[in-house]
Specification:
The chain is an alpha/beta fold and 233 residues long. It folds into two domains: 149 residues, 3-Layer(aba) Sandwich (Rossmann fold); 69 residues. It has nine helices and eight strands. The strands form two sheets. Strands 5-4-1-6-7-8 form a six-stranded parallel β-sheet, with helices on both faces. Strands 2-3 form a two-stranded antiparallel ribbon. Bound molecules: magnesium ion.
Length: 233
């Protein structure tokens, strides 16, 4: 199947991050430590954070991280994330998956519109785009800022809708595909009424499968290259 427009998640979809659960848990741990003197909650507790959606503030309060402005939390989190990426990218520990450039080149060659829709801070997304020379591939990029962007973050469909609007995309006569490795990518895409492709890569990220997800992917692939020859799920 062929689409007019391809939207990509960044982390763990285009960008390889070694051991993502550990990577992001470390950042979460350090961020919590920064804001409370009462110690960091155990790992099982911290794992709840990633699934808490807009309830994350309640969870932080439970852990004695009480802030007037929760953007402060994300600013600290992002600063740590940025610090690690700047360390790991030059070392090659964080890198593009090996099939990314091939796929982007193929799609660009046939005139597809390409965009990134990421829940990572916009300045970090920009850093990655620049480091890996990806500027000329993407017509639009969505990353989070510290205004109302948390409300536009996936699984909300609003970030995707905003990007489609900027691309002059018309649902009535065009088709779009969101490709991502997470349940939030799939939910956001389906709620925005576009096609959704779950990219599994080599991780067993969802060992229990995804049949109980509220929104089902239209396609499931192991490697990104497969989007060039997609068949319905
Ligand atoms: Mg991802």
């Amino acid at each position: 199947m062929n689409f007019d427009c391809y939207l990509f998640d960044l982390d763990n979809s285009l960008l390889y991050i070694p051991n993502p659960p550990e990577y992001f848990d470390n950042i979460l741990k350090e961020t919590i430590e920064f804001f409370t003197k009462h110690g960091v909650p155990p790992r099982e507790q911290r794992n709840r954070f990633w699934l808490s959606g807009d309830q994350y503030k309640a969870l932080l309060k439970e852990w004695d991280v009480i802030l007037e402005d929760y953007n402060e939390f994300w600013e600290k989190f992002d600063a740590l994330d940025f610090k690690f990426r700047k360390e790991f990218v030059p070392q090659g520990k964080i890198r593009l998956f090996s099939d990314v450039l091939l796929v982007l080149n193929e799609l660009m060659k046939v005139g597809k519109k390409l965009a990134i829709v990421s829940n990572t801070a916009r300045y970090i997304v920009d850093y990655i785009i620049k480091e890996f020379d990806l500027e000329h591939y993407f017509d639009e990029i969505f990353g989070l800022g510290y205004g109302n962007e948390q409300d536009l973050a996936k699984p909300s469909p609003e970030g995707i809708k905003m990007i489609l609007h900027k691309l002059d995309f018309n649902l009535a006569d065009s088709t779009a595909l969101m490709i991502g490795d997470s349940v939030v990518d799939i939910s956001a895409a389906k709620r925005a009424n576009i096609h959704a492709c779950l990219l599994k890569r080599d991780f067993e990220k969802y060992p229990d499968g995804y049949s109980d997800w509220e929104h089902q992917p239209d396609f499931v692939i192991e490697q990104l290259e497969e989007i060039l020859t997609l068949k319905p799920n």
